[in-house]
Specification:
Elements: H1 7-30, H2 37-49, E1 54-56, E2 68-72, E3 75-77, E4 92-101, E5 104-113, H3 119-137, H4 145-158, E6 162-163, E7 169-171, E8 178-182, E9 199-202, E10 205-207, E11 213-215, E12 222-224, E13 230-232, E14 235-240, E15 243-246
Antiparallel strand pairs: 1-4, 2-4, 3-12, 4-5, 6-10, 7-8, 7-9, 9-14, 10-13, 11-12, 14-15
Helix pairs in contact: 1-2, 3-4
Length: 252
């Protein structure tokens, strides 16, 4: 069931998402060569819980063991932080996090460069971020889900990259994953009509090589089928009469 939220409810979702907007600038300074993904995870959990009433939304969700999903290079999403995974110069690491606050959820992701990254890696990050921006711009009343997906697809494919089709964005609010699904591909003018009050987690996942993915034996980590790199950016976005409202924007 698709639920349209009131302004007060959107504000409540925004308070959860705003914790992520404060978390990611802090994480950016800590994503350096030599840090382990477990260290990033421990910091994130402490940071989230330092906000009164806030808790990590992912920890224990469907059995996931950590606060963050940390996905490195060929890993697309759902990488599990460990003390054995030490980031190296030139890596790309997607960091995905969720917050639950007062019964409402926020969800957001960034992909960070670890130290100096090659030109192709920087371009992958730039294109994926621009794909997110283009998709968010479509989150307006009267637009359709196909417009959101097409925006991602057009930006990514124009740069010679592919979009993951087996994984999607989603609605968000009282649950971390709600209807509708939000694909990163589509046809303009097709699909569900967007209305004010709809809150979406829009999350382009863009690959250097083929769009195909597979899941590792840990049953969580999704990787590119060809072993090439992937990038992932995500915002929690409310559709309003005044246009898209990014609830998880980085704090100034």
């Amino acid at each position: 069931m698709i639920v349209l939220r009131t302004e007060a409810e959107i504000d409540a979702i925004g308070r959860a998402a705003a914790v992520l907007g404060r978390l990611f600038p802090e994480l950016r300074t800590r994503v350096v060569p030599g840090v382990t993904t477990a260290e990033l995870d421990a910091f994130a959990e402490e940071f989230i819980r330092s906000h009164a009433g806030a808790e990590p939304a992912f920890k224990g969700l469907y059995g996931f063991p950590a606060t963050l999903c940390t996905s490195v290079n060929r890993e697309v999403v759902h990488g599990i932080p460990t003390a054995a995974r030490r980031l190296e110069e030139g890596d790309l690491v997607s960091v995905d996090a969720g917050v639950k606050l007062d019964g409402w959820f926020g969800d957001s992701a960034r992909t960070f460069a670890v130290g100096e990254v090659d030109a192709d890696g920087r371009r992958l990050l730039d294109v994926t971020h621009r794909a997110l921006e283009a998709a968010v711009e479509q989150a307006r009343p009267g637009k359709r889900l196909g417009d959101v997906g097409a925006a991602v697809q057009e930006v990514a494919e124009a740069a010679g990259f592919t979009v993951v089709r087996e994984l999607v964005g989603h609605g968000i609010g009282r649950g971390p994953h709600e209807e509708p699904q939000v694909p990163n591909f589509g046809s303009r003018g097709r699909g569900l009509e967007l209305k004010a009050g709809l809150v979406l987690a829009i999350e382009p996942m863009v690959n250097e090589g083929v769009a195909d993915v597979r899941t590792l034996k840990d049953r969580w980590t999704v990787v590119t089928a060809d072993g090439l790199r992937s990038a992932h950016f995500e915002h929690t976005v409310a559709v309003t009469e005044n246009g898209p409202r990014i609830l998880s924007a980085d704090a100034a």
